[in-house]
Amino acid sequence: MSERSPLVLIPQFFGSLVFDRRTSRYLPFDADSTTVLARLVDVPVKQVLADEVDDERFDRLIRFYEHFHELGFFTVEGRFAGTVLSGLEVPADHLVGPLAVHLEVVSACNLTCTHCFAGELPRREKRLGLAEIDRVFAEMARLGSFRLGLTGGEPLLRKDIFRVIDMALERGLAPCITTNGLLITEEIAREFGKRDLVWLNVSLEGATAETNDKVRGPGTFAKVLDRLAMLREHARFTLAFTIMRTNLAEIQACAELAHTVGADTAVFRPLYPVGIATQHQELMPTFAEYNTALNELALMDRNAPIDVRHIDPFSPQARQETQSVIHQNYGCGAGNLVCSISVSGDVNPCSFLGPRFVAANVREQSLAEIWHNSSGFQSIRTLSHTEPASGAGFAGGCRARALVLNGSINAPDPWITAQTTDTGSPGIVHNPLVILDVTGR
Predict the structure, then answer these.
(1) What is the edge-to-edge ordering of all strands in the sheet holding 7-12?
(2) Which residues in the chain show pLDDT less than 70?
(3) DSSP letter for each residue of 152-202
(4) Which run of H or E residues covers position 151?
(5) What span, in angstroms and rounded, lies between the C-alpha atoms of 167 and 176?
(6) 39 pairs with which residues across the strands?
(7) Where are the strands (E) in 21-113, listed by range?
(8) What is the pLDDT of residue 294?
(9) Cα separation of 155 and 179, whole Å?
């Protein structure tokens, strides 16, 4: 695999996004800053400063350079440590490509969890072959869509999963894989350990067998812990928990468990009423319960050897403070920031929205054509956004939650209403889309 520049500048209608391969983060820049960065590809900063005649702008350039120099944006010669994606058609009102693509690599699973977002499995579909997947990966790289989530079902049921991962890495993508962990063997653990850029999430749903196995099935807790003991000898991993009513009382214990089994982090995200979970909505916590759980984790940070941060779930192994990402907007990224591709190539603004919102198929159209021109993506970008007080339409949060609980993807997300009222718990009120990372010090 050829050595790649650590940074990629992707032109956008507002200026650009710079993707940092070292942290798997995107950083936005306005048009003026983009012009400076693009020029610094070819000439060193000394030349750019020498050509500047405006004193105020000269000072701004110095501050700009010093700040991003600390983040490793420039070479020792003072040039931009990256490349610029060229040949892109930049739309006037949306991103050149999704920031993240979630690819379903298999539509089967060895578990039947009562909260699974993937719905009834197995599904009999003609899955994408390796050549088709590689073509999608190449399109993603051309669009600057570098983040890749490999999902299922259970991805390790796909016998060529490491070839899929390697193809992604060869295209310069940053893959993240989520597994239930039960199929991890010594050989598989070693294979994960060879791939430094892969972030591996292993799912559990409680700190005890009693709590976890009610959701994931009898015996799964003990079996997963056994696999983790083997995995930690070869690879770094995250322990991923879904916040549900069944595990609310164990939130702090879940974080402690992650530390005990050798996980680098514990990640907590709310249960969404999608897939199988639509049949078990009693598992879904209220916003007040969810908020209380996150506040308990925050309090734990003061008294235990862990760090608690809002994170970007695609962040890779190193999560220094300068690399943490906090998403404080209350919006939904479906069709604007992310998209999903099913095992058979159906493209959806978000996998949580279900098959009725499929826009097109990558076997018939390119990912770029679907992203830019399909009616499904165009329509979700033009849906109205109203102020929360009006209660008339979607005003942030999750469109899938709005669909299931209020009947329309353009209806209010009831958790947005809930977060503006008394949550019944002390501490801050959290963004209802938050994913929380608890990292061992």
Answers:
(1) 25-30, 15-20, 7-12, 82-84
(2) 1-2, 197-198, 301-331, 384-391, 419-441
(3) SS-GGGSTTHHHHHHHHHHTT-EEEEEE-STT--HHHHHHHHT-TT-EEEE
(4) strand 147-151
(5) 13
(6) none
(7) 25-30, 82-84, 100-104
(8) 83
(9) 6
Helix 130-143 vs helix 161-170: angle between axes, to the nearest 10 degrees?
30
Angle at 295 between CA 290 and CA 299, to 5 degrees: 150
Amino acid at position 187, single letter: E
First to last CA, the chain: 33
Counting beta carbons within 10 angstroms of the beta carbon of residue 187, is it exposed (0 to 12), middle (13 to 18) or buried (19 or more)?
exposed
CA-nearest of 246, 215, 277, 245 to 404 is 277
Helix (H, G, I), strand (E, B) or coil at 65: helix
Q: Which of 291, 310, 197 lies closest to 251, judged by CA? A: 291
Q: What angle do CA 173, 102, 16 make, to 5 degrees?
A: 55
Strands 360-361 and 100-104 come out as: unpaired
Q: Report pTM.
A: 0.89
Amino acid occupying residue 75:
T
Q: Cβ distance 271 to 397 under 8 Å?
A: no
Closest of 228, 240, 232, 250 to residue 300, by C-alpha = 250
Taking Cα atoms as reference points, which of 222, 205, 209 lies closest to residue 267? 205
DSSP assignment letter at 334? B
Q: Please give the pLDDT value at position 316.
A: 35
122-168 per-position pLDDT tens digit: 888 899 999 999 999 999 999 999 999 999 899 999 999 999 999 99
pLDDT tens figures, 335-372: 999 999 999 999 999 999 999 999 999 999 999 999 99
Q: Which residues pair with 347 in a beta bridge?
A: 341, 360
Residue 274 contacts residue 117 (beta carbons within 8 Å): yes
- CA angle, 317 then 266 then 100, to 5°: 55
Query: Locate tokens 């979970």: which residue?
Result: 277
**Cα-based angle 264, 204, 401 (whole degrees, multiple of 5):** 105
d(CA 155, CA 180): 9
Residue 314: how many other CB atoms lie within 10 Å: 20
Beta strands 147-151 and 174-179, pairing class: parallel
